[in-house]
User: Fold this.
Amino acid sequence: MTHDPDTGQPVPDSQEPGRQEQPGKGVLLLRIILPLLVVGVGLFAAFWLMKTGPEAKPRTKSRNAALVSVVPLEYKTHRIHIEAMGTVRPKQEVLLKPQLSGEIVGISDEFLPGGYFSAGDILLKIDETDYRLAVEQLQDEVSRAEADLQLERGRQLVAIKEFELLGETLSEEEQALMLRQPQLESLRAVLSTAKSKLRQAEIDLQRSEIRAPFNAVVLSREVNLGARVTAGSELARLVGTDAYWVEVSVPVSRLRWIDIPQTLTERGAAARIYDQAAWGPEVSRSGRVVRLSAALEEKGRMARLLIEVPDPLSLDPENSGQPGLLLNSYVRVEIAGQKLAAAVALSRDLLRDNETVWIMNAEDRLDIRKVEIAYSGEQEVFVTAGLNQGERLVTSLLSAPVQGMPLRVPGDSRDRQDGEPGLRVEEPGAQ
Assistant:
């Protein structure tokens, strides 16, 4: 036993400084059992929650089928139409010039740019006074030559009677001289020359009237009333109104689809001419292919076709109301080509890369298929192989098309949006 230094009281040995009391067995058991009890209660609570929690609602796994629009394919007969651009040209054009000299003393009221004339109509007149006098003078010369010839024939009859009375035998040359044969032939020649001069003078008199050589429209006028012209002076430029030509350029590869006549009796391919700026988008005129130019264009290496349009200015009563073609207009031409007996017509935007199309097959999956194109136009392509009658062509645009990808169409009775049955996942939800 020890004593406390402060109080001097005795202190038990167990309470000596520096010594600790050891815990009892109960405390040790409590420290071990309590954590185990907490863990057990937690495990029981977790198990109870799992058993009594809401059940997962079944949901079909989505396969993400792409929604597309389709159209059925159909093989049938199609006529190829070749589209091209062309320029309107005159079929007949002439620069009118006089064949004699003189003053313009008469002019038609229609003789102005845009004026119409029928073949043989008088456009203008040259002073005919000198030419009429020449005709009258030559008529007198012809009359004198005829009289001289008649007198000579009388002299020849007298010579024949004298020769018969003589009864002499002469050579052919002597006989011709005695019968005045050279004098007769000379007067015949004089008469023939006089008649030729008279005919020329009459022609010159007729040429003093300038007439339209064909049905024409005046393109330009170069003279006015009172002007003096000489042979070769330019009077006017005329263009025929019976027909115009449209000169179009087409690729050489498309010529085999066009019926091009080789003779005047053959009938070329029909064509429609459109001038949207002047007539509107729906109005057109009809024409026909008449010839193929013998040479290609130097720059574009394109073939050149001539398409004839009859009555281009709609002057005939049966074409009344139709628009008129303007020379040098740049027009669109649609040429009716040959027929394809069995082909599928597709819009160009439905032709995919590398001449393929998208087909929705019987398993509702995408089939990227190569096709054979017989003709490729501006708006359509014609497929002759690679497709089957009644197949479904995908017309929708797919951002990332993959061979065999699942597809669905609007209004399908089967549940394509939810996917294939049997593939299910658990999703938390109401019981």
